[in-house]
Amino acid sequence: MKIWVDADACPVVIKEILFRAAIRAQITTTLVANQFLRTPPSAFIKTMQVPGGFDVADNRIVLEMESGDLVITADIPLAAQVVEKGGFALNPRGELYTIANIKERLAMRNLMEELRSNGVDINGPASFNQGDRQAFAATLDRLITKHHKT
């Protein structure tokens, strides 16, 4: 298992949790972004800078990842591609996208996008909080324990 991070919009606190997990579990973690990223020095933490543009980072992640890899993303269409390719997709709030729930999440995302494009005022997600961090860390730890072979 490798970890891939859709890093442009990933909260800093989630990156920090990932850095600690990568070093502790000795798991290769690659942050993909269209900007320069600072990371701690580690043989297990890498960055991949891609050109700016619509879905460039997402497309690179899908191209590079393999079945069984974990992708950290809040982007539901990217999560759908990851699950379809046999990977795990985890959002920064700790929700694991699976074959069982990804189609529903994608349909809901598309509905909300259509409502917003038609001028309907839709409240965005709640503020990122301590509970989200804890849920993410717990789910990440379970996935690594269950699926990562050192």
Strand content: 5-15%
Amino-to-carboxy terminus distance: 9 Å
Residue-averaged pLDDT, rounded? 92
The coarse silhouette is globular
Backbone structural class: alpha/beta
Structure description:
- With 150 residues, the chain is an alpha/beta fold.
- Helix 1 (12-25) links the parallel strand 1 and strand 2.
- 44% of the residues lie in helices and 15% in strands.
- The chain has a six-stranded mixed β-sheet, with helices on both faces.
- It is built from five helices and six strands, in the order E-H-E-E-H-E-H-E-E-H-H.
- The protein has helices spanning 12-25, 56-64, 76-84, 102-117, 130-147, and strands at 3-6, 29-33, 45-49, 70-72, 88-90, 96-97.
- The N and C termini lie close together (9 Å).
- The mean pLDDT is 92.
SSE diagram, text form:
Elements: E1 3-6, H1 12-25, E2 29-33, E3 45-49, H2 56-64, E4 70-72, H3 76-84, E5 88-90, E6 96-97, H4 102-117, H5 130-147
Parallel strand pairs: 1-2, 1-4, 2-3, 4-5
Antiparallel strand pairs: 5-6
Throw out a few tags for this protein.
150 residues, alpha/beta, six-stranded mixed β-sheet, 5 helices, 6 strands, globular
